[in-house]
Design a protein that fits this description.
This protein is α/β, with parallel strands linked by helices. It has 8 helices and 7 strands; from the N terminus they run E-H-E-H-E-H-E-H-E-H-E-H-H-H-E. It has a 7-stranded parallel β-sheet, sandwiched between helices. Helix 2 links the parallel strand 2 and strand 3. Helix 1 packs across helix 8, helix 3 packs parallel to helix 4 and helix 4 packs parallel to helix 5. The structure holds nicotinamide-adenine-dinucleotide (NAD). The site of nicotinamide-adenine-dinucleotide (NAD) has 27 residues, from helix 1, strand 5 and helix 6. The site of nicotinamide-adenine-dinucleotide has 27 residues, from helix 1, strand 5 and helix 6.
Length: 257
């Protein structure tokens, strides 16, 4: 079992009990980490506060990744409470409904900018703020969540595929920048899971069906399985792994016909 005793982590991206970020929070907490968890807007505050009752002494703070001031306050709060930071989990992503239903060629300038800002740039914004806190701990691990739509075309994934391609490139550039400080940056590319974010993609259920039929493991994956893989990357077990996109998708990515 992973040991995160004495470690402090930040988890961004919990919306409800189905969130991948929540599964990772539960696993990290069970491994002994003390966590800061965030909610995006008042709409989700109650969910996150209710779920966090299962965590040990969590720091609960608002964080909309488009709000620089809120991010500054979050990291000031973390520094005050934890004195440093060992890991960050970035599970924030968003694209407007129009962008996920209309043909890709109709993607608006504004919709493109919003999706890329929230889903990709935010990793840079969080990493920059985490850097001085991780330096205090002699290093750290930053983890984000991506999807195969970055490399292959999935119907209606549209601008999110472009955002995930940018996100994966950010992982590599951040890993190169922060590696000399012993800060690792990785992504998990998860297979499709029915979450709030997934519900925004039209025809999502049919994607699940294709994975069940064609993935080598002949099934979809669960959030707890993504969390187990996350524990590897967040803990010392993954200490030589950086700039990596780890596929946790039952092997679907390797299939042709
Ligand atoms: N569900 C899947 O099939 C799947 C597969 C691969 C990757 N992912 C990725 O996993 C991550 C988590 O998604 P999920 O499926 O658990 O869904 P989710 O809806 O539970 O999580 C998405 C989170 O993004 C947050 N978010 C959106 N806009 C934000 C903003 N402006 N500021 C801060 N937070 C914001 C939401 O509040 C929510 O907590 C996303 O990056 C998603 O793309 C999901």
């Amino acid at each position: 079992m992973t040991d995160l005793q004495g470690k402090h982590g930040l988890i961004v991206g919990i919306a409800n009990k189905r969130s991948i970020a929540w599964a990772i929070a539960q696993a990290a907490s069970a491994a002994g980490a003390r966590l800061a968890v965030t909610y995006q807007g008042e709409r989700l505050e109650e969910n996150v506060r209710d779920l966090s009752e299962a965590l040990t002494d969590p720091l609960i703070m608002p964080c909309d990744v488009t709000d620089e001031g809120q991010m500054d306050q979050l990291f000031a709060g973390i520094e005050r409470e934890f004195g440093g930071l060992d890991f960050v989990v970035h599970g924030a992503a968003f694209a407007r409904k129009e962008e996920l239903t209309a043909p890709f060629v109709e993607t608006s300038r504004d919709g493109f900018a919003t999706a890329l800002d929230i889903s990709a740039y935010s990793l840079i914004a969080l990493s920059r703020r985490a850097l001085p806190l991780m330096e205090k701990r002699g290093g750290g691990s930053i983890l984000t969540l991506t999807y195969l739509g970055s490399e292959r075309v999935f119907q209606n994934y549209n601008v999110m595929g472009v955002a995930k391609a940018a996100l994966e490139a950010c992982v590599r550039y951040l890993a190169a920048d922060l590696g000399p400080k012993n800060i690792r940056v990785n992504a998990i590319s998860a297979g499709p899971i029915k979450t709030l974010a997934a519900a925004g993609i039209s025809g999502f259920s049919s994607i699940l069906g294709v994975y069940r039929e064609r993935a080598p493991l002949r099934r979809t994956v669960e959030t707890a399985e993504v969390a187990d893989a996350a524990m590897f990357l967040l803990s010392s077990a993954g200490r030589a792994v950086t700039a990596e996109v780890l596929m946790v998708d039952g092997g679907y990515h390797a299939t042709g016909m």
